[in-house]
Amino acid sequence: SIAFQLPVSGDVSLTIHSLTGQVIYQVDKNYSAGLHNVELSKEELDYAGVLYYTLQYEGESLTKQMIIIE
């Protein structure tokens, strides 16, 4: 799962991609202010290894690494 907190409501883009840049999962959604948790199943990702996720909000972006273990 990926957790994030927003100070005010707004459009958020969440992209999960491989080391080579292949997009594995993407969602664009409007979220309200507060704490949010995006739950992803193994079937949705269908990938094992190192992945990166990027959150974009209000012109800012944050990229973090995660490891998916089978």
Structural commentary:
This protein is 6% helix and 66% strand. A 4-stranded antiparallel beta sheet has the order 3-2-5-6, with no helix packed on it. The chain has a two-stranded antiparallel sheet with strand order 1-4. The chain is mostly beta strands. The chain contains 1 helix and 6 strands; from the N terminus they run ββββαββ. It is globular.
Largest sheet: 4 strands, antiparallel
Return the string of H and E elements: EEEEHEE
Total number of β-strand segments?
A: 6
Give helix % range: under 10%
Annotation field: number of helices: 1
Measured on Cα atoms, how large is the radius of gyration? 12 Å
What structural class is derived from the secondary structure elements?
Answer: mainly beta
Q: Give, in spatial order, the strands making up the sheet with the most strands.
A: 3-2-5-6
Mean pLDDT figure: 93
Question: Secondary-structure blueprint of this entry?
Answer:
Blueprint: E1 2-6, E2 10-18, E3 23-31, E4 34-38, H1 42-45, E5 49-57, E6 60-68
Antiparallel strand pairs: 1-4, 2-3, 2-5, 5-6
